Amino acid sequence: MQLSTHELRVLGSLIEKEITTPDIYPLSLNALQAAANQRSSRDPVLDLVESDIRQALHALEDRGLASPARGGLGSAGARVPKYEHHARTVLNLRRDETALLCLLLLRGPQTPGELRSRADRLFSFDDLSSVVSALERLLNRAPSGDGDTTTGPLVTVLPRQPGSREVRYAHLLGSQSPAVAPASGQSHTAEAADQPGTSAAPGGVDVAGSPLAALVADVARLEARIASLEDRLRRLEGDPAAVTEPSPRAYPGTSTADAAPVG
Q1: Residue 42, domain extent
Q2: pTM over 0.90
Q3: Residue 235 and residue 112: Cα distance in Å, rounded?
Q4: Residue 75: is it exposed, middle or buried by C-beta count within 10 angstroms (0-12/13-18/19+)?
Q5: Lowest-confidence range among 18-27, 60-69, 242-251?
Q6: Residue 263 maps to a domain
Q7: Does residue 252 have a cis peptide bond before it, meaning omega lies within 30 degrees of 0?
Q8: Can you spell out the DSSP letters for 214-263?
Q9: pLDDT score of 241 more than 60
Q10: C-alpha span between 133 and 144 (Å, rounded)
Q11: What is the spatial distance between Cα 63 and Cα 67, in angstroms, rounded to a whole number?
Q12: Is 174 a member of any domain?
Protein backbone atom coordinates (compact mmCIF):
# COMPACT_ATOMS: atom_id res chain seq x y z
CA MET A 1 0.00 0.00 0.00
CA GLN A 2 1.62 3.20 -1.20
CA LEU A 3 -0.06 6.49 -0.30
CA SER A 4 0.84 9.93 -1.61
CA THR A 5 2.26 12.67 0.60
CA HIS A 6 -1.15 14.34 0.80
CA GLU A 7 -2.93 11.09 1.60
CA LEU A 8 -0.42 10.30 4.35
CA ARG A 9 -0.94 13.73 5.92
CA VAL A 10 -4.74 13.53 5.78
CA LEU A 11 -4.77 10.01 7.25
CA GLY A 12 -2.33 10.96 10.01
CA SER A 13 -4.36 14.06 10.86
CA LEU A 14 -7.58 12.06 11.14
CA ILE A 15 -5.93 9.52 13.44
CA GLU A 16 -4.40 12.23 15.61
CA LYS A 17 -7.57 14.28 16.04
CA GLU A 18 -9.68 11.22 16.83
CA ILE A 19 -7.45 10.64 19.85
CA THR A 20 -6.56 14.16 20.98
CA THR A 21 -9.79 16.05 20.22
CA PRO A 22 -12.63 13.50 20.23
CA ASP A 23 -15.15 16.29 20.85
CA ILE A 24 -14.71 17.63 17.29
CA TYR A 25 -14.18 14.26 15.60
CA PRO A 26 -15.15 13.23 12.90
CA LEU A 27 -13.65 16.26 11.15
CA SER A 28 -15.26 18.69 8.76
CA LEU A 29 -13.35 19.55 5.62
CA ASN A 30 -12.22 22.88 7.10
CA ALA A 31 -11.09 21.26 10.36
CA LEU A 32 -9.21 18.56 8.45
CA GLN A 33 -7.48 21.16 6.28
CA ALA A 34 -6.40 23.07 9.41
CA ALA A 35 -5.10 19.86 10.99
CA ALA A 36 -3.17 18.87 7.88
CA ASN A 37 -1.56 22.33 7.61
CA GLN A 38 -0.68 22.63 11.30
CA ARG A 39 2.61 24.39 11.96
CA SER A 40 3.37 22.34 15.08
CA SER A 41 3.94 18.58 15.29
CA ARG A 42 4.28 18.32 11.51
CA ASP A 43 7.35 17.52 9.44
CA PRO A 44 7.30 18.78 6.79
CA VAL A 45 4.84 21.65 7.20
CA LEU A 46 2.44 21.58 4.26
CA ASP A 47 0.05 24.10 2.79
CA LEU A 48 -2.75 22.00 1.31
CA VAL A 49 -5.72 23.64 -0.35
CA GLU A 50 -9.27 22.31 -0.19
CA SER A 51 -8.96 20.47 -3.50
CA ASP A 52 -5.87 18.65 -2.17
CA ILE A 53 -7.82 17.50 0.89
CA ARG A 54 -10.78 16.34 -1.20
CA GLN A 55 -8.57 14.42 -3.62
CA ALA A 56 -6.71 12.74 -0.75
CA LEU A 57 -10.00 11.79 0.94
CA HIS A 58 -11.32 10.22 -2.28
CA ALA A 59 -8.13 8.16 -2.62
CA LEU A 60 -8.33 7.04 1.02
CA GLU A 61 -12.01 6.13 0.54
CA ASP A 62 -11.05 3.90 -2.40
CA ARG A 63 -8.67 2.04 -0.08
CA GLY A 64 -11.21 1.80 2.73
CA LEU A 65 -9.05 3.94 5.02
CA ALA A 66 -11.50 6.84 5.34
CA SER A 67 -15.12 7.65 4.64
CA PRO A 68 -17.72 10.37 5.14
CA ALA A 69 -19.41 10.27 8.53
CA ARG A 70 -22.78 11.59 9.60
CA GLY A 71 -22.35 15.35 9.83
CA GLY A 72 -23.74 17.69 12.43
CA LEU A 73 -25.88 20.72 11.74
CA GLY A 74 -24.16 23.93 10.76
CA SER A 75 -25.14 27.35 12.05
CA ALA A 76 -27.54 27.76 9.14
CA GLY A 77 -29.06 24.33 9.70
CA ALA A 78 -27.32 22.74 6.73
CA ARG A 79 -25.63 19.39 6.94
CA VAL A 80 -21.86 19.63 7.35
CA PRO A 81 -20.02 16.67 5.79
CA LYS A 82 -17.49 15.14 8.14
CA TYR A 83 -14.86 12.46 7.68
CA GLU A 84 -13.42 9.63 9.74
CA HIS A 85 -10.62 7.10 9.31
CA HIS A 86 -10.69 3.31 9.51
CA ALA A 87 -6.96 2.67 9.86
CA ARG A 88 -7.21 0.57 13.01
CA THR A 89 -9.73 -1.78 11.46
CA VAL A 90 -8.25 -1.98 7.97
CA LEU A 91 -4.65 -2.39 9.18
CA ASN A 92 -5.58 -4.42 12.30
CA LEU A 93 -3.72 -2.17 14.72
CA ARG A 94 -3.52 -2.07 18.49
CA ARG A 95 -3.84 1.32 20.16
CA ASP A 96 -0.13 1.65 20.91
CA GLU A 97 0.70 0.70 17.32
CA THR A 98 -1.82 3.23 16.03
CA ALA A 99 -0.17 6.00 18.06
CA LEU A 100 3.31 5.19 16.74
CA LEU A 101 2.14 4.92 13.15
CA CYS A 102 0.34 8.25 13.50
CA LEU A 103 3.54 9.96 14.67
CA LEU A 104 5.53 8.46 11.81
CA LEU A 105 2.91 9.62 9.31
CA LEU A 106 2.91 13.18 10.63
CA ARG A 107 6.56 13.70 11.54
CA GLY A 108 8.59 11.30 9.42
CA PRO A 109 11.38 8.95 10.58
CA GLN A 110 12.04 9.06 14.34
CA THR A 111 13.99 7.22 17.02
CA PRO A 112 12.22 5.20 19.73
CA GLY A 113 13.17 7.90 22.23
CA GLU A 114 11.63 10.63 20.10
CA LEU A 115 8.50 8.58 19.58
CA ARG A 116 8.07 8.01 23.30
CA SER A 117 8.50 11.68 24.18
CA ARG A 118 6.04 12.79 21.47
CA ALA A 119 3.38 10.15 22.09
CA ASP A 120 2.02 11.48 25.40
CA ARG A 121 -1.23 12.80 23.96
CA LEU A 122 -1.76 9.68 21.84
CA PHE A 123 -0.76 6.82 24.12
CA SER A 124 1.06 6.53 27.45
CA PHE A 125 4.10 4.30 27.07
CA ASP A 126 5.54 3.17 30.40
CA ASP A 127 9.13 3.07 29.17
CA LEU A 128 11.29 2.83 26.09
CA SER A 129 11.03 -0.95 25.95
CA SER A 130 7.25 -0.73 25.45
CA VAL A 131 7.84 1.57 22.46
CA VAL A 132 10.38 -0.84 21.01
CA SER A 133 8.01 -3.76 21.56
CA ALA A 134 5.25 -2.03 19.60
CA LEU A 135 7.67 -1.08 16.83
CA GLU A 136 8.83 -4.69 16.60
CA ARG A 137 5.26 -5.85 16.11
CA LEU A 138 4.81 -3.32 13.29
CA LEU A 139 8.16 -4.38 11.82
CA ASN A 140 7.56 -8.13 11.99
CA ARG A 141 3.98 -8.36 10.74
CA ALA A 142 3.75 -11.38 8.46
CA PRO A 143 2.24 -10.89 4.99
CA SER A 144 -0.83 -12.99 4.29
CA GLY A 145 0.54 -14.30 0.99
CA ASP A 146 -2.75 -13.69 -0.83
CA GLY A 147 -1.91 -10.24 -2.16
CA ASP A 148 -3.58 -8.40 0.73
CA THR A 149 -1.77 -5.05 0.94
CA THR A 150 -3.10 -4.33 4.43
CA THR A 151 -0.87 -7.00 5.97
CA GLY A 152 2.87 -7.28 6.23
CA PRO A 153 5.38 -4.89 7.85
CA LEU A 154 4.23 -1.31 8.36
CA VAL A 155 7.56 0.14 9.49
CA THR A 156 11.20 -0.28 8.56
CA VAL A 157 14.52 0.58 10.19
CA LEU A 158 16.76 3.21 8.63
CA PRO A 159 20.55 2.95 8.96
CA ARG A 160 21.84 4.79 11.98
CA GLN A 161 23.10 8.30 11.27
CA PRO A 162 26.73 9.15 12.07
CA GLY A 163 27.05 10.25 15.69
CA SER A 164 23.58 9.02 16.63
CA ARG A 165 23.07 6.43 19.37
CA GLU A 166 19.65 5.35 18.15
CA VAL A 167 18.37 4.14 14.81
CA ARG A 168 15.27 5.69 13.29
CA TYR A 169 12.08 3.98 12.20
CA ALA A 170 10.02 4.99 9.17
CA HIS A 171 6.56 3.88 8.02
CA LEU A 172 6.02 1.83 4.86
CA LEU A 173 2.65 3.26 3.84
CA GLY A 174 4.11 5.54 1.20
CA SER A 175 7.18 7.18 -0.20
CA GLN A 176 9.00 9.67 1.99
CA SER A 177 9.11 13.07 0.32
CA PRO A 178 12.47 14.88 0.03
CA ALA A 179 11.44 17.07 2.96
CA VAL A 180 11.29 14.06 5.28
CA ALA A 181 14.27 12.20 3.85
CA PRO A 182 17.03 11.21 6.30
CA ALA A 183 18.83 14.27 7.61
CA SER A 184 22.25 12.93 6.64
CA GLY A 185 21.99 15.01 3.46
CA GLN A 186 21.45 11.96 1.27
CA SER A 187 18.09 11.27 -0.32
CA HIS A 188 16.23 8.21 -1.50
CA THR A 189 16.49 7.54 -5.20
CA ALA A 190 13.35 8.42 -7.12
CA GLU A 191 13.15 4.93 -8.58
CA ALA A 192 13.26 3.20 -5.19
CA ALA A 193 10.86 5.70 -3.63
CA ASP A 194 8.24 4.98 -6.29
CA GLN A 195 8.36 1.19 -6.01
CA PRO A 196 5.63 -0.27 -3.78
CA GLY A 197 6.91 -2.44 -0.96
CA THR A 198 10.44 -1.07 -1.02
CA SER A 199 12.32 1.15 1.36
CA ALA A 200 15.43 2.91 0.18
CA ALA A 201 18.17 3.73 2.61
CA PRO A 202 20.18 6.93 2.40
CA GLY A 203 22.36 6.91 -0.69
CA GLY A 204 19.76 5.06 -2.75
CA VAL A 205 20.41 1.58 -1.28
CA ASP A 206 17.33 -0.61 -1.27
CA VAL A 207 17.10 -2.04 2.24
CA ALA A 208 13.68 -3.64 2.59
CA GLY A 209 13.54 -7.36 1.87
CA SER A 210 17.33 -7.80 1.80
CA PRO A 211 19.64 -9.57 4.27
CA LEU A 212 20.87 -6.11 5.23
CA ALA A 213 17.34 -5.23 6.36
CA ALA A 214 17.30 -8.15 8.81
CA LEU A 215 20.74 -7.22 10.13
CA VAL A 216 19.81 -3.56 10.54
CA ALA A 217 16.58 -4.54 12.33
CA ASP A 218 18.46 -6.83 14.72
CA VAL A 219 20.99 -4.12 15.53
CA ALA A 220 18.16 -1.62 16.01
CA ARG A 221 16.40 -3.89 18.49
CA LEU A 222 19.58 -4.47 20.46
CA GLU A 223 20.41 -0.77 20.58
CA ALA A 224 16.88 0.15 21.60
CA ARG A 225 16.90 -2.47 24.35
CA ILE A 226 20.24 -1.19 25.64
CA ALA A 227 18.85 2.35 25.65
CA SER A 228 15.78 1.10 27.49
CA LEU A 229 17.92 -0.65 30.12
CA GLU A 230 19.99 2.48 30.58
CA ASP A 231 16.82 4.50 31.01
CA ARG A 232 15.46 2.10 33.62
CA LEU A 233 18.81 2.03 35.41
CA ARG A 234 18.85 5.83 35.65
CA ARG A 235 15.33 5.78 37.06
CA LEU A 236 16.27 3.03 39.49
CA GLU A 237 19.25 5.00 40.79
CA GLY A 238 17.15 8.12 41.15
CA ASP A 239 13.88 6.66 42.41
CA PRO A 240 13.51 2.87 42.88
CA ALA A 241 9.75 3.22 43.15
CA ALA A 242 9.60 4.72 39.67
CA VAL A 243 10.59 1.43 38.02
CA THR A 244 7.47 -0.59 37.35
CA GLU A 245 6.52 -3.28 34.96
CA PRO A 246 5.04 -1.87 31.73
CA SER A 247 1.30 -2.20 31.43
CA PRO A 248 -1.02 -1.47 28.53
CA ARG A 249 -2.61 1.95 28.50
CA ALA A 250 -5.65 3.01 26.56
CA TYR A 251 -6.98 6.22 25.15
CA PRO A 252 -8.60 8.62 27.60
CA GLY A 253 -11.99 7.33 28.55
CA THR A 254 -11.32 3.74 27.50
CA SER A 255 -10.38 0.62 29.38
CA THR A 256 -7.08 -1.22 29.13
CA ALA A 257 -8.92 -4.07 27.49
CA ASP A 258 -9.06 -1.95 24.36
CA ALA A 259 -5.31 -2.40 23.97
CA ALA A 260 -5.97 -5.80 22.42
CA PRO A 261 -5.80 -6.15 18.63
CA VAL A 262 -8.83 -5.15 16.66
CA GLY A 263 -10.47 -8.11 15.00
Answers
A1: 5-85
A2: no
A3: 18
A4: exposed
A5: 242-251
A6: no
A7: no
A8: HHHHHHHHHHHHHHHHHHHHHHHHH-GGG---------TTS-GGGGSPP-
A9: no
A10: 21
A11: 10
A12: yes
